Amino acid sequence: MAGNSFGVLFRVTTFGESHGPAVGCIVDGCPAGLSLGEEAIDRELRRRRPGGGGPQSARREEDKAELLSGVFEGKTLGTPIAIMARNQDQRSDDYEELRDIYRPGHADWTWEAKYGIRDHRGGGRSSGRETLGRVAGGAVAKTLLAGFGIRIQGWTAAAAGVAAPLPGEAGFDLDAAEQNPLRMPHREIAEQALAKVEALRAQGDSAGGIVACSVHGLPPGLGEPVFGKLDALLAAAMLSIGAAKGVEFGAGFAAAAAAGSQQNDRTLRWSAGSGGDALPLPPGTPALRYETNRAGGMLGGIATGMPLAFRVAFKPTPSIAQSQQCADRRGLVREFAVPGRHDGCVCPRAVPVVEAMTALVLADLLLLHRSSRITSPEGYPFRI
Amino acid sequence: MAGNSFGVLFRVTTFGESHGPAVGCIVDGCPAGLSLGEEAIDRELRRRRPGGGGPQSARREEDKAELLSGVFEGKTLGTPIAIMARNQDQRSDDYEELRDIYRPGHADWTWEAKYGIRDHRGGGRSSGRETLGRVAGGAVAKTLLAGFGIRIQGWTAAAAGVAAPLPGEAGFDLDAAEQNPLRMPHREIAEQALAKVEALRAQGDSAGGIVACSVHGLPPGLGEPVFGKLDALLAAAMLSIGAAKGVEFGAGFAAAAAAGSQQNDRTLRWSAGSGGDALPLPPGTPALRYETNRAGGMLGGIATGMPLAFRVAFKPTPSIAQSQQCADRRGLVREFAVPGRHDGCVCPRAVPVVEAMTALVLADLLLLHRSSRITSPEGYPFRI
Amino acid sequence: MAGNSFGVLFRVTTFGESHGPAVGCIVDGCPAGLSLGEEAIDRELRRRRPGGGGPQSARREEDKAELLSGVFEGKTLGTPIAIMARNQDQRSDDYEELRDIYRPGHADWTWEAKYGIRDHRGGGRSSGRETLGRVAGGAVAKTLLAGFGIRIQGWTAAAAGVAAPLPGEAGFDLDAAEQNPLRMPHREIAEQALAKVEALRAQGDSAGGIVACSVHGLPPGLGEPVFGKLDALLAAAMLSIGAAKGVEFGAGFAAAAAAGSQQNDRTLRWSAGSGGDALPLPPGTPALRYETNRAGGMLGGIATGMPLAFRVAFKPTPSIAQSQQCADRRGLVREFAVPGRHDGCVCPRAVPVVEAMTALVLADLLLLHRSSRITSPEGYPFRI
Amino acid sequence: MAGNSFGVLFRVTTFGESHGPAVGCIVDGCPAGLSLGEEAIDRELRRRRPGGGGPQSARREEDKAELLSGVFEGKTLGTPIAIMARNQDQRSDDYEELRDIYRPGHADWTWEAKYGIRDHRGGGRSSGRETLGRVAGGAVAKTLLAGFGIRIQGWTAAAAGVAAPLPGEAGFDLDAAEQNPLRMPHREIAEQALAKVEALRAQGDSAGGIVACSVHGLPPGLGEPVFGKLDALLAAAMLSIGAAKGVEFGAGFAAAAAAGSQQNDRTLRWSAGSGGDALPLPPGTPALRYETNRAGGMLGGIATGMPLAFRVAFKPTPSIAQSQQCADRRGLVREFAVPGRHDGCVCPRAVPVVEAMTALVLADLLLLHRSSRITSPEGYPFRI
Fold it and tell me: Fewer CB within 10 Å, N side or C side of chain D?
């Protein structure tokens, strides 16, 4: 409960500092009998890795997941799944300069105010490298969700002030997203945005952006009221990602300026069983469908069966090559330019982290949902 | 863990349906020795109550908190504090029409999809009345925080598309906020916004808005990394409030379009002890202050000592007098106008709920923070 | 997490001091759709109430459970079930003498060492009256378990050094247990034990005893490894009851002196489906049965399908009429005889508490168990 | 919450199967600033390792702890401490025979009934090897407790029916305990007991025993009412150890046959500050001391300041060389002798596990205790 675990039944605990021996996670609560191998984890870790010509950091991270436990003969055992990746680039000397300085926009000083001690090398635990454990755990969650027909897809919706088309708008192309370095769902717009990001980087600066995410196949009814709402848990998951500064669901902040008659989604009837997305519902319950999805796929924090839709705002990478005024441990203020080569925009690398955190929320809610009502198959009073 | 509890060490569990016998909460984990009486709770409950001429619902709720346990001779015992308010207006017949219909924008259908059963009267547990337990629990948390010098203040930053000045801008007047029915920090702008809300209500419609909140006096270091970050927990708290559709911290969504050199706050030196806001820091740690507060008072999810600043987007009240297309339990679609008189804009009543949830997050983090490091007073190895 | 909640998915939180306004509980996580009324709760509360001519305290407690939430038209809603009983006998003056004294064998001094404050009236929160909330919550759990065919039965196995026959031994008669004031499963032995308890009470003294409990109908596989084992959770549940000093499962302490060949239960085959107790097992899994049950119904903390069997040792009531040496708040030592009339032996009133705590453990494990593996009915990849 | 984590604030999660790649743990919530190195962990792991000529298994386990995270320049960072040990002896072929058989007294069948799958090699996750993670985590907890002056000591109190002297009895010698293979606190009695264990082993049989544990230096007030009592948490901790069948505190089961006047400990006055064991108490609170310790160091589940004293019953090792009747996966019953060489008595190896689990309980309660009351140093309203 000290902040390094996430989830109740499907629970991930991450560990590791950027330049310590290793990073990774334990996934506790994954049901037994799920087919799982290291390749499913490596696939997601590859998506998280800094790219080639794109705006990401040039640091090499050849992360290879090692499954330490919880899988036997290709299937999950129901026991904790421990996953580890060694940190390869541990030359501490490169970071000696950071020992006594509090970089602007980073957690250096707040971390020290909290603990009285910090590992200054590469941000220590507050480094983006911590997300490796999240992505590895999220890969397990995604595998579980896939078996239930639930699919999660994230992309960069805006970068450096350049916005991609919205889903349903002309030119929106999710296939394109995984093929350009910014992960934007439109080839030309991605190129324009990349040009702006690179121009900022040439000036020793960096760019912010927005990551969007949608989820298809959620069964109506998923989500726990009143503090365990879908949006509440997703909001916590998103804001737990470094550099995230906001989140909105469905119409989001635009809803604040709308009238009720505009925001309420018009209900259409949906004949039971006709929708491939939803699970079979209890007999007698009509399955509903809505003309629009301003609700973002949930009402009262519980899934309607429409796609989940939300957006996360990311601030620009705080590490910039420009000289900035910051303080050191003696309380002196001085100019400092963060050394090294940094991500020009965090969004493309944030996409798999947003997906992973979404998967962790949904896997947990899926298991919690099993306890929401009594089921009574014939021949036995209740079912376990 | 089924969603009705919030917090780890300072933990509130709310109970009650809108038209059941009672609503309320249990606060578990409040430290012993705190002065607490029913009047501290009643004060907050009064702020939550529907007002007179304003845009709130005309339903009478004369809520009187009853303290059932946990307080003895005016002081907390360290035991669970149970607080209850009877529901007075339980005429179920008024709601018979709602038994078979799923109101648009409400959780009627999703609740039934989850549980297979719902209390249809007034929204049952998904009613805004559930927030009474939150506000009562938040009143206890506020009392605890006040002893540490931590002050929480919320207000309506925008309603029906009309925005109030930001803190620091000309005309921003928090004293005004508690004196107009919309709780906006500017008398004239509040009147303009109220006129637009009333115009919408005259058309059988409703308005959305934005609630802002700031917190002064947080000690640097508060907040748990990496999943228990200040912003992560506050985001969960805010999105757990009905009708909330988004949250942003500091510069928020604007940060997504900014450059790194604009977003990073410039560090100023702050001589230790000079700031009334912060707690004494460990010897040798300089206390920092920033020229701006685009970070919203936190870095890496840990408090910097600058004021917390965040904003929550609320959708318009979904209950509107206009006829809307919605579905009933047989799966038929029909026109339906929600009967009764409803809030024209949820923001003014959301303000005390936003404050209460903020208080619950901070009280919990304050207690969690006590375990973050070893303290060693002289004469004894460690301190408990 | 401050100690007043029990369980993860089926979670009870009790509240209340002995002489405060009320005692009770919230049950969070009970599945929706369960038939539940106040009479099911009152039935268990009656069993807990001090009896007539038996060794129990003469204090009148006419406890009437009031259901404040969570039930609608006779069925659980899946929302928190709040249950309250008013304290009727609040004459604080009777207890003024206890304000400054630490009774021997009671938690008066330790409570004050912890919190610096205590409600001295009747033991405050450390009073046996706190168990009312447990028994009420346990009644809900029992109702849930009954639907799964799980039956819990406790009795007094020994009192004042007089032991009743063991299950399977000649004369063991569970029907008799509810008909004598000590709740022992043998009429004559109960009378002998009662005579010894009354003889002790005549001397201003009290008696200890042992409560035994068995559970039939548990599905094989119930229980969470490695820290959530059936016996681990039951042990915590039992030792959380005031006056409990030990617990043993199956052969218990006798196993410590046995050889492995004596302790291991011999496996008999058990054709699938023939046992009315167990749930249908996955195809291909043989259902086992054992010749003996020295394991007490579990191996590795997971249910075998044989009856659960365990025993709890209770110390004598610490409140005795004899004068005892104890300390007061000024640190002075003096002689003190606890005033009033007290239980001669806690066992008969502990029986329903042991049963209630057992029910709470099993209801929680039943819900947790639903997440242990993936189930794949035909026609859909996985089942929620 | 799926059973592989223990503790709230000081929380350990163990992972690993006996013959998978590795076993270990994550400790989350250890305060920052504690001096910790691999040698402190290795010391405890060595105590857990199978011995030379004693009754333990001949399997070689040269466990070397690797600290993967959470420690920087010899001090804890306040971040998760991940500890791993590779499994060296993974020849799966040796275990092929166990794939289809359910060994008597082991969790083979119950594990499979739960999960539908198990790692049959060496017991998989239900192997005693899982305790390596507990002992490693317990070593961190012991280091923390040592700084507070809290010392934990376990020993074998009985083996094969031969009992060692009790603390305070003639011949009781804790120094001797670590020098004989059974860890009994009396050299000659240890030799007698060892002879009986070896005689049983010569017959292909095994022996049970009792492990006792005492804790000195606990501050009065430690322990959380009402479900988080010292004894409740310790009971859960003890019964979570494989082969444990019972636990008793202080007078334990003997209290069940005693009279109240015998069980209540007589209070002696204790002048504040005179006892080296206890922490400074709040002004005005007298520190108490008792003539005897039948309560086992706690009243109402809260520490009195007297030593904690409890005993754990262990059943004989279920793996015996004698042929036993057991079932296989096809449901056939056959004779089976567990191959290999096994512990003759689990007690000596259980001692460090009992100590580790005790340390985990106490470290968690120590951190929880910090939130029990408000503290008010001069010059500032409250203290964080």
Answer: C
- Are A319 and B129 contacting, i.e. CB atoms less than 8 angstroms apart? no
**For the stretch D178-199, what's the b/e string if a residue is b when 16 or more beta carbons lie within 10 angstroms of its beta carbon?**
eebbbbbbbeebbebbbebbbe
What is the mean predicted confidence (pLDDT) over D76-93?
87
Residue in the block written with tokens 């009236």: C121
Nearest to C365 by CA among C215, C216, C217, C228: C228
Report the complex ipTM: 0.94
Say which of B204, B227, B372 has its CB closest to residue A240.
Answer: B227
SS3 (DSSP) at D348: helix
Taking only residues 248 to 277 of chain C, the set having a beta carbon closer than 8 angstroms to any beta carbon of chain D reads: 248-253, 255-269, 271-272
Q: What is the band of D51 on the pLDDT scale with cuts at 50, 70, 90?
A: low
Contact A159, A354 (CB under 8 A): no
CA quadruple C70, C75, C77, C80: dihedral sign: positive
**Domains in chain B, CATH or no CATH each:** 5-371 (3.60.150.10)
Hey, are the CB atoms on C22 and B70 less than 8 Å from each other? no
Could you tell me which residues are beta bridge partners of residue A86?
Answer: A22
User: Nearest to residue D337, comparing CAs of D318, D362, D310, D356?
Assistant: D318
Instruction: Please state, in angstroms and rounded to a whole number, the distance separating the CA atoms of residues D252 and B199.
Output: 74
Which of the 8 DSSP states describes residue D248?
E
User: C222 touching D, CB under 8 A?
Assistant: yes
pLDDT of residue B280: 44
CA max distance for chain C = 76
Interface test with A, best of B156, B227, B333 (most A CBs within 10 A): B227
The set of chains that have 3 or more CB pairs under 8 A with C is: A, B, D
- Measured between CA atoms, how close is C73 to chain D, in angstroms? 32
Chains C and D form CB pairs within 8 A to the count of: 411
Integer Cα distance of C242 and C18 in angstroms: 14
Torsion sign over Cα B123, B126, B131, B134: positive
**Surface-to-core class of residue C19, CB atoms within 10 Å of its CB (0-12 exposed, 13-18 middle, 19+ buried):** buried
User: Token pair of B251, please?
Assistant: 């510069």
Give the separation between CA B58 and CA D141, rounded to whole angstroms: 57
- β-sheet bridge partners, residue C249: C310
User: Is C350 an 8 Å CB contact of chain D?
Assistant: no
DSSP D80: -
Inform me whether the C-beta atom of residue C334 falls under 8 Å from chain D C-beta atoms: no
The distance of B245 to chain C (nearest Cα, Å) reads: 23
CA dist A197 and B223 (Å) reads 32
Residue in B221, B300, B325 closest to A126 by CB: B300
DSSP A29-61: -PPBT-B--HHHHHHHHHHHS--SSSSS-----
Q: What is the pLDDT of residues B97-138, one digit of tens each?
A: 889 899 999 999 999 989 999 999 988 999 999 999 999 999
Using a CB-CB cut-off of 8 Å, the residues of chain B touching D32 are 372-374
φ, ψ (nearest 5 deg) of residue D204: 75, 25
Q: Per-residue b/e over C306-322, b at no fewer than 16 CB within 10 Å?
A: bbbbbbbbbbbbbbbbb
Q: How far is A156 from B264, CA to CA, in rounded Å?
A: 22
* pTM given for the model: 0.95
Quickly list DSSP for D258-312: SBHHHHSPPEEEE-TT--SSSPPPPTTPPEEEES--TT-SEETTEE-SSPEEEEE
Residue A324's contacts (CB-CB under 8 Å, 6 or more residues apart) are: A104, A335, A336, A337, A338, B261, B264, B266
Q: How far apart are CA B174 and CA B171, in angstroms?
A: 9
Low-confidence ranges of chain C (pLDDT < 50): 52-53, 58, 272-283, 376-381, 383-384
Q: Are B266 and A333 in contact (CB under 8 A)?
A: no
